[in-house]
Amino acid sequence: MGELQENLKVALVGNPNSGKSSLFNILTGLRQSVSNFPGVTVDKKVGSAILSDKSKVTLIDLPGLYSLHPNSRDEKLVVNILTDQKGEYFPDLVIYVADATNLERHLLLATQIVDLKIPMIFVLNMIDILEEKNQKIEPEYLSKYLDVPVIQISGRKSKNIDTLKSLIKDYQTKGSADFLSSKQLYAIPKTLEGLTFDIAQNLNVKNPYLSKIFSHHFDWLNHFSEDEKEKINSIATKHEFDNIKNQLDETMSRYNEFGPIARKVVTRETNAPSTITDKIDSIITHRILGPILFFAIMLFVFQAIYSWSEAPMDWIEQFFAFSGNAVRNIMPEGWYTDLIVDGIIAGLGGILIFIPQITILFLLISILEETGYMSRAVFMFDGLMQKFGLNGRSIVSLVSSGACAIPAIMATRTISSWKERLNTILVSPLISCSARIPVYAVLIAFVVPKDQTFGIFNLQGLAFMGLYLLGIAGALAAALVFKYALKVENDNSYLMIELPQYKPPIWKNAILNVKEKVTTFIVEAGKVILVISILLWFLASYGPSSAMKQAELSAIEHIETNNLTEIEGENYLAGKKIEASFAGHLGKFIEPAIKPLGFDWKIGIALITSFAAREVFVGTMATIYSVGSADDEATVSARMAAEINPQTGEKVYNPATSLSLLIFYVFAMQCMSTLAVVRRETNSWKWPAIQFFFMGAMAYFGSLITYQLLS
Amino acid sequence: MEGKSVFDLEVGEIGYVKTFNNLDCACKLLTLGILPKSKVKVVRKSPFGDAIYLQLDGHKIAIRNSEGKAILIED
C-alpha cells in the first residue's frame, strides 16, 4: 500500500472493566463527543486521536462485551458493527484492550475477532499492577499465538501510550499486513463444514467463521434483508444446526487452546494472599453491614447535595440579580427590556442556579460506578429486587435515576429479561431526578424552616431525603403491581455479574463524565426553558385586549378608593393584569380540577408548562412573579413567600399547598425527553402512554389526599 | 440426584466444576470464566441469602442460587 490512509477508523474493543474507556479518554482527551448510534440509544463515543506527526485518526469506543455470542442489546450492537463489513462503523483497525491481571478470560473475544480477520493491535492493559507485584510478563507468547502486535500499557499511569500511537501510525503508513493474523484460531468442526460452505455460497461470505456467526445470530443481525435471513434460516434448518450447543463447543475449544498460552504470558500467583478488594468486600458486602453502608452512602449523597452547594448557589443567584438590574439600567424602557429581564434572564437564572447540586449528584454517582461499588449493590439487592419483579441490575438504574431517568433507562439494557427490564423502565422515573431538585429546593422552604437542625442533620436536608424515600417507595410499590399486572413472560432472567477489583476513581474519567452530563442538562433543559420562558412572558404580559383594559380600569379604581401607596398599587395592578392575560385564562381554565389539591391558577400555569420538563417550574414561577411584580430585587422564593390568596387573605404557599405540590412533583411524569426515550427503548407508544397515566394518577391522588388531610 | 452443585457448597468451601445441567446458563457462565475444571470458592452469601459471591482464579463473580444449582462440581 504505502500511501497514507486518511480517515482511518479505529475501534476500541474489549470486555467490560478492561480499562477501555480510560484509554479512550487518554487518546482523545477533550476531542470527543457522545451521541447515539442511529436508531438505538447506545452511547456512541467518537473522538480523534492525534499521532506523533500531528495526523489524526477517528477513534470509536464500542460498548464492552465478553463474546461474539452476546446477551444484551449493547453487546449485540457491537456484534452488528463487527460483522457488517460494509457498515458505516466497521473499523479498519481494532485496538483490543485486555486486563493483563486476568488475561485468560479477556482472550475469548480477542480470538474471535482475530478469526473475523479484522486487523488488530492487542493491548495488555494494567501492567502497572503486575509490575507492583513483580510478576513476569512474556507477551511474545501471545503475539506468536494471535499473530498480531501485542503491546503492554498502563492506562492508569499513562505508560507506553506513545508506543501505541506509533503502532497506529505504522498501520496508517504501511497498511494492514502486519496487523492481520494469518491464523484461524478456531477450526470449524467437520460437522459444520457443510453449513458454512452453503452460507459462503449463498451470501458470498469468504470467511468460514463469519458464516458460523451468521448462522448463530442472523435473526437479530440488522444488516441482513428478510430475504437473506430466510436463506440462512433454511440452510441452518437443513443442516440441523444446534445454536446453543455450537456456542458452547466453540467457547470450550477456544478456552482449551488459549488457556495454556495465557498462563505462559502471565505467570499466575498460586495461593494469592487476600487482596485489598477481599478485605473491603468483607465489610461492604457483609450480610448486615453491607445494606447499612448502602443506606449510609445514599444519606451522605443527599446531605452533600444540600450542604456543599450552598455557597456556589449564592454566587450564581447574585450574578443573575446583578445582571437583571444591569440590563434594566442600561437599556431603555420598553417591551424588549421586559422580555430580556423578566423572560430570559429570570427564566435562565432560575435553572442555572441548580448547576452546583446537579454537578455534585452526577459526580458522586459516577464515583460509585467507577470504583466498582455498584456491582456490589447489584449482588446484595438482587434477591430483594426480584421480589418486586425487578433484577439486581435495576439498582443501577434506580440509583442513576437520582441523577436523570434518561441514562437510567438506557442502563436497563444490561438486564436480559424483557419483563424485568420493562418493569425497571416503567418505575425508574418515579425516583426523584435532578430536575426535581429545583422544585423541591424552592418548596421545601415553605414546609420546613431554614437552618434548623436535628442533631447533626440539616432539617431541610432530611425533608429532601424524605421526598426521595417517597419516590423510592412509590417506585417499588408500582414495580410490585407491574410484577403481577404485566402479561409478559419472564424468561432469560439472570444475575451473573462480575465483581471487579476496587479501584480509586480516575478523576479524569469522572470529571469528563460529569462535564458531559451537566452540559447536556444545561443545553437540553436550557433550550426548553428559554422557549417556554419567552412564550410564558408573552402569555403573561398580553391578553385579550378588552379584558386587559377592563382589568386595568377596575384596578385603578380600586387603588384610588382604597388609597394604596405607590408600590402597593403597582403590585395590585400587575397582579390584576396577569389574571386577565392569556396565561391567566389558561390557569383559570384548569383551576377547578386542581383546586381540591390546594393549587391556584398561577400554580396551574406552572403545572402545564412543567409537562415539558419539571425544572421549568421554577423558571415559570420566576417569569410569572417577575411580570407580576414591580420589584426586581427579590428572588423567586421571596416573591412566592409573599404571595397572598386574595379570597382568604392567607399565604398561598402554606404548608398544606406546598406539601401537596411537592407530592405532585414526586410522582408526576413531567418530562418529554424521558417519554421519548421510553418509546425508543420499548419500540412502542404503548409503554410511555401507560407510564404517563399511572404516574399522573399517583400524583393527582397523592396530592389530593395530602391536601385534604392537612387543610 | 445429579450430584453436588455450587449451591451445596458451604461458605469458605472450594469445589471444582464438573459440568453444567442447563445449557443456556452454561453459555453465559462460560463467558464469565466458569469452565469445567475451574476452581470456585464460595466467599459469602448475599444479605438476604439469595445470591452467592464466588472467587474464581483471578476474579470474582456473583450468581443467584438457581444459577449455582446449574453448576455441578466434582465429588
Describe what you observe in this structure:
The complex is a heterodimer of chains A (711) and B (75). Among the domains of chain A are: 9-179, P-loop containing nucleotide triphosphate hydrolases (Rossmann fold, 3-Layer(aba) Sandwich); 190-265, no CATH class; 527-710, no CATH class. In chain A, strand 5 (93-99), helix 3 (103-115) and strand 6 (120-125) form a beta-alpha-beta unit. Chain A is an alpha/beta fold and 711 residues long. Chain A has 31 helices and ten strands. A seven-stranded mixed sheet of chain A has the order 2-3-4-1-5-6-7, with helices on both faces. A two-stranded antiparallel ribbon of chain A has the order 8-9. With 75 residues, chain B is α+β, with helices and mostly antiparallel strands. Chain B has a single domain, classed as SH3 type barrels. Helix content of chain B is 19%, strand content 36%. Chain B is built from two helices and five strands; from the N terminus they run βαβββαβ. Chain B has helices at 23-31, 65-69; strands at 14-20, 39-45, 51-55, 60-64, 71-73. A five-stranded antiparallel sheet of chain B has the order 4-3-2-1-5. Chains A and B meet through helix 3, helix 10, helix 11, helix 16 and strand 10 of A and helix 1, strand 2 and strand 4 of B.
